[in-house]
Each structure stands twice: as C-alpha cells, then as structure tokens.
Fold Kinesin motor domain-containing protein.
Amino acid sequence: MNVDVVGRIRPARRPEQGHSLLTSAEGKTIYTALGGGASCRFQEVFDQNASTQKVFSRTVEPLLNVFTEGMNACVVVFGETDSGKSYTLIGEKNDRLAIIPLAIDYIFGAPYLQNLQATAMWSLTISMYEIYAEVLKDLLDSSGMDPANLKIACNAQDGTFIKGLNRVAVSSAADATSTFRQGWARRTGASTDFGPAASHATVVTQLDLLVQDGNEMHPTKSSLQIIDLPGAEKLADDKNTSHFQESPLLNKSLHVFAQVVSDLAGTPYPDRVINYSESKLTQLTQEAFGGNCKTRVICCLPPKPETNRLAAVLRTCSTLSQVKNFPVLNDYFVESLVTQYRARILALQHQSFQEMGTKGDGEKVNLLRDQIRRLNNENVQLRDRNERLYTKLGDLQGKMGQMAGSKTDLSSKLVFSEEEKLKISKDLIDLQIQTNKIREQYEAENFELKSKILFLENRIMELELQKDKCTHEYRTAKDCLRVVEKNRKELADEYIVLKTNYMTLSKQHENEVAKNDELSLELLNLANSKKSLTRKQDEYAKSRAIYDEATTELNRVKDLVARLSCQKMKPEEVFVPESDRGTFERNLLGNQDQIKEQIEVMKQNYEKQQNAMEERIVKMGKELQEAKRGIRNTQHKLAEQTVALLGSQSQLKEVETENSQLQLHLKELNEEYRMRLVRYIEDVTDYVDNTVKSGNDNTKPPAADHPYLKRFVDSMLKDIRSAYRSREEQLATAARNYKKRMQNVFKKHEHLLIAYRMQREQILSLGTKDLDPGPSEITFAITDSELLSKQSQELNRLREDKAHLEAKLQDLQEKVRLGRISAPVIFSSLPETDGKDANESWSELRRQLREFTFTTQEDLERERAQLISRVTVAEEQLAELQEYVDKHLGRYKQEITRLRKLVGTEIPRAFSADALHR
Ligand SMILES: Nc1ncnc2c1ncn2[C@@H]1O[C@H](COP(=O)(O)OP(=O)(O)OP(=O)(O)O)[C@@H](O)[C@H]1O
C-alpha cells in the first residue's frame, strides 16, 4: 500500500500576496514551472482557505480509525521551514484545532474503542523524542537527568527502540494533550549559528495503544507516530558541499531519510534490503517507511516558495508517494512471526560478527561466502514464505485498497450509519417503551379479564344462591299463601259463623221485638185495666162513701128504727134481708178480688223472671271468672313469648357482632396476604437483582434462562394459592355457619311471630276489654331490608295490611257492640218514644249491618284476589328469574372458558373478587 501524500498550502502573507503555486486543472498536481521542472501529484491539495479541521478529518481521521482497530499508523508533516508544519500539528497558542490535539480527542472518543464490550480493556501511552544532530532527547523526561543520552537498541520482541524512553500512560484526552504540550515545550529551542534548532530537529510523538478484548487471549498492540520532520529546504542544497557550511550531523537525518525513501520507491518489492541504519531517524521510523504501517504525509507548502526548494520538496513527495508499505493488523500471530524473523536476523548478525572476529582474511572470505550462500538459501526459503505471505498481503492490500477507495464513502456512510444507528436506537427505545406499554396494557387487561372472570364467577354463584333463595322464598311464599288461604277460609268460616250468629241474633231480636210488642200490648192492657181498676176503685171509694153514707143513714135509720122500735120493730126488719145485702155487696165489690188475683199472678211471674235473670247473671259471672283466668294464663304465655322474642333479638345482635368480627378477621387476613405478597415480590426483586449482578461478571448465565427463578416463582404462587384456598374454605365455612344460624334465627323469629299471632287472636276472640291483646305482630317483624328477602318483605307488607284490616274490623265490631247495647236502651226508651221511631232506628241499624257485611265480604274478596294476583306475579317473576339464570349461566360458563383460553393460565380460584379489586 503506497504512502499517501497530501499537500497543504499556507495562507499568503503580505509580501507573498498575489503569488500562487502552479497547479493542474484538477488541482492535485503542483509544478515548479509550466511545461517542465519538478512536479508532484498529491492525493489531495488543501488550499489556503482549508482549515486544519478539514485537513484532519480528510487525512488523519481514517488513519486513526485503523490505528484504534490495531494497525500501525503514521502521520508525517513535511515541508520547508516556515511552511506551516508546526501550525498544522499543534496550532498556535494552545489551539485545540490542530492535528495532535484533535487526534488525541478523536482517539479517546473513537467509535471502535467506544463500541468495545464492557469487559474489554484498553490503555494508551504517550512517548516523545527529538532527534537533533543525531542526538536523541526524551521530551517526556522530567527527572532532571540529561535527557539527551538515549541509545537505540534492538530485540526480537520490540524491534528497534529507544532504550529508557519514558512512556506516560494517559487516561483522558486532557491528560494526553497536557503531556504532549509539556513534551513539546521541552524541544531544543536555542537558535544556533545555522538558524533556529527547530528547523533541523525532528520531533516524534508516539502513541501506543494496547487493547485487551475479553474474547481474545492476547492483546492487540498498535502505534501511531506523528513525525514533524526538519525543514525540507536543505534537500535543495548540495549534499557534498553543505557539510562544509553546517555540521554534517545537523542535516544527516534528512538526507538519509531522502535516500531511504528513494531506495524504497526504487524497489517496491518485499524482498528489498534497505539500509535504515545510517541515521537515527530512519532507524526509528523504518516501520513507517516501507514497513508494517499505514503512513500519510502532509506536505506543507508556502504560497511563494523558492523554485529549487519547491522542486526538492516536490521530488521527495513524489518519491514518498511511490513507497510501498505493508500494513497488517497486529494480531498475535503476525507479531509472533515478525518476532521470529527478528530473532533469526539478530542471531545471524551475532554469529557473523563472532565468526568475523576469530578467522583470518582468506578464511573470513570463505566463511563469508558460505554465509552468503547460506543466507541466500535461507533467503530463497524466506522468499518462498514471503511470497506466500505477500499473496496474502496482496489480498489484504486489495481489500485495503478497496477500503481506501471506499474510505471516504465509508466515512460519510459511517456518519450516515451513525445517524441511522442513532435513529434506530431511538426507534428501538421507542419500541421498547411501546413494548413496555403494551406489556403493561396486556398485564392490566389480563388482570382486568381475570377480575372480570372472577366477578362473573361470583355473579354466577350469587345468581345460583339467589336462585336457591328464590326457590326457598317461593316455597315459603307458597306456604304463606297456603296459611293465608287457610286464614282466609277461617275468616270466611268465622264470617259465616258471625253471619249465622247475626241472623240468629236478628231472629232473636225480632222475637224479642215481637215479645216486646206483646208485652207492650199486655202492658197497655194492664195499664188500661189499671186505669179501669183505678176508676173502679174510685167508684168503689165513691160507693164506699155512699155505703158509709148509707150505713150511716142505715145506722141513723136503725137508730131511728130502734128508737122507733120501741114500738116493736127491729131495724133489720126495716131494711132488705142479709142475702140481698151479700148479693148487693158481691155485685158492688166482686171485680176487686179478680184484679188482686191477677196482680198476684203477675207478681209471681215477675219474681220468676227476676230469679231466672239472677241465675243467669251468676252463671255469666262464673264464665267471666273462668275467661279471666284463661286470659291471665294467655298473658303469662305471651310474656314468655315476648321474652323469647327479645332473646332471639339479642341473639340476632350477637350474630351481627360475630359477623362484624368475621369481617374484621377477613380484613386482617387480607392485610396479611398483602404483606406476604409484598415480601414475595421483594424476595423476587432481590433474587433478580442478585442474579443480574452476578450475571455482569460473566460467571453465571442470565437470570431469565435460569430454571431456579421459575421454580421459585412457581413455588411462591403455589404457596399463595394454597394459603388462599384454605383461607377461602375457612371463610366459606364461617359464612355457611353464619347463614345457617341466621336461617335458624329467622325460623325461630317466624315461629315466635306465628305463636304470638295465635295468642293474640285467641285474646281478641274473647272480646273482653279488660285484657290487652298487645300490639300487632308487624311491630315485631324484622324491618331491615338488607336481611329480608323479597318474599319476606311482601309478607311483612301483608302483615301490615292485615293489622290495618284488624283495626278496621275491631272498630266495626265495636260499632256492632255499641249497636247491641243501644237496642235495650232503645227498648227501655220505648214507652217515652214513639213506636214508629224505634222501628225506623232498628231498620237503620239493620241496613248498616248489612252494608258492613257486604263491604267486609267485598274487602275480603278483593284482598284474596290481590293475594292471588301477587302470588301469580311472584311465580311469574320466579319463572323468569329461573329462565334468566339458566340462560346466563350457560353463557357465563362459555365466557369463562373463552377467557381462560385467552389468558392462557389457570386463574387461581382462591383469589376472591374483593381481594383482586383491592
Ligand atoms: N494554515 C495557516 N493559516 C494561518 N497561518 C499559518 C498557516 N500555516 C502557517 N501559518 C503561519 O506561518 C508561520 C510559520 O508557520 P510554522 O511556524 O508552523 O512553520 P514551520 O514550518 O513549523 O516552521 P519551523 O520549521 O521553523 O517550525 C506561523 O506564524 C504560522 O502562524
């Protein structure tokens, strides 16, 4: 691979303005004179306006890429004094826009080194030396010793090198730049009789890179040499005469360099033998010119050079562009081979020197001939080997040529690919974010689906429970209906009995009324007879007075007669005989006895009736006593029942307390579950973190592939499932027990209510005012709608209606009772009232009773119809519910199966919907 040579023209100063170098049309060839003279075709020529940055990126940057990848590289700055060499290399006043600072910055940010695996290591050392008048000076020696005492040595391992040269390890671009600037400042700065020392000195800055890839056994070494050559104007001087003017050592490096370059350009083949040993510069840079190195020369040109000098510079540049180098990747095998050859050459050299020292001249010649022969043979063998290597090298060179050709494209492509890479990495990050989002969404959806499934399962369970409850309630309602029907029948029977009683009473009442009429008539007769008797009595009294008057008259007459009988006539004889008198008396007072007899009979009848009444009252009093006793017993029983009811209510409260305790326990369990879950997750995180940490040192495989994590997670899930299953079973058992107890309490409550109702009805049937039957059963009914089913609520509503009806019935019965009581009152008031009015009020009462009977019957019939319609509606609702449950049960089951398939995992049944929601 030829050495690349590029030209850079310094901007013109005032005296130089208006002059320009002669260049070809394409701008790459520079001539000393039109139509003849020296010329050089540069790979690229940077004009006066080109910045150092541009020179760097077009010339040095590709070299730095191969350097960081493991090849030796070299940048040579060549040109006459004041052409801008130092400006190009280090700039002005610590300017960073110069090749060396830019190169250091680039190396530390080089893509290859940046893209190395985290396990790879790389290090960079910097060394600087100056060759001035064939004296080597270590520019990085800060020990205070004489730095210009360095010797060149050679060994198989390192080839030619400077013994004791300082190599400073640098860890950052700033570190490297400051080290370089310190070294640069130590250059020989004195001005000599032959001009400034810098014009005759060569400064070599060498950067050695060592890359140890984690996947490779041996490290890769590569070196970058940046050579600032002495002013090239001396090449224009005559070599044979110049040493009379200057010290011969002063320009030796430059002249030997030009000679070596010329030799190299003349023999482009690999079997050339070049004498590098004439100067220290050529010895130390033999790899850069004709060796294992990729070299680029920047030829700095002033805008107005002297023709001779320009010609010498152009000639040297032209020769340099013909020099062939053989750069290879410094892998372990290449290095080993080179070391082997170096060792062999060194051994031969040693041997020949020894032999030359011991033998005589003739023998020495023979020996030398033999040695030459041997060397020739060896040379042939080496050539064979070399040819093979060269064929390989040719391929490599071809590839390198292609690479060089496509280098610019590659660099632009590299930039483009970098941009693409950035874009792709951005897209990748976006994709990762999107993937994470999708994963989160998936997990959320999965969770939602799981909770939905559990919710549906719970719903099914609830529906099944509701169905059972409905069936149970339907049966209870049927039983209730039966009871209500029975009650209705009983009421109807009672009503019939009442009606018959009423009829009987009406008949009795009519009989009584008839009797009353008769008695009234009789009483009227009696009153009439009494009147007539009174009249008779008055008449009798009058007749008595007449009698008395008559008696007095009679007695007067008798006296008169007696007085007169003295004449022999008795008074009795004067009047009518005694029988006539009896008949007369009988005729006068005969009715009075009859009346007395009748009165006596009536008195006897009254007495009999009074006795019978008294007996009846006594009998009723006894019955009343018995009834009171019975009522007292009933009241006692009622009190017992109330106590039991209160007991059951307190039991209900206890059960409620127990329920709240259970709920509390459930909460505690949930809390414990959450804690355990958190602990598990922490364990998993720790475990994953530890695995990731251990995975970083490449000793363990990644955690995702490790079966232990899966086992760990599986066991964890198994634990959670089993714990939850057992807890759910416990809770289900507790809930079942609670439900049973609730049902028992409800049953007891219902029994108590029924017993209470029967007792109350018994008391009510007695119809006594003294005994309080207590409040309606609805007062003791459970009103909490949460605890009641629909049927129970309906039952309670019916109970309320019944209580209302009972109250109404009681009012009416009261009215009837009042009506019954008012009858004797009316009867007793009959003598004072008119007979016609009494009849009217009775007919009014009868009408009211009839109306009440009809309305009660109608109410009862309506109630019955309502009850039947309600039961029918309840049956229809139950049937609908049954149908709905049957229909949706199948659908829910199908849905669950589908969701299970979709989720792909078995949903732990142990998780309650509540826990999942939480
Ligand atoms: N491309 C450039 N742009 C601006 N100024 C430049 C450029 N090249 C060189 N110069 C200027 O030219 C002068 C000489 O440059 P420089 O010292 O680098 O030359 P030189 O070849 O290194 O000389 P010497 O061999 O004596 O060191 C400096 O003042 C420098 O600033």
Remarks:
- The radius of gyration is 72 Å.
- Residues 407-565 form the longest helix (159 residues).
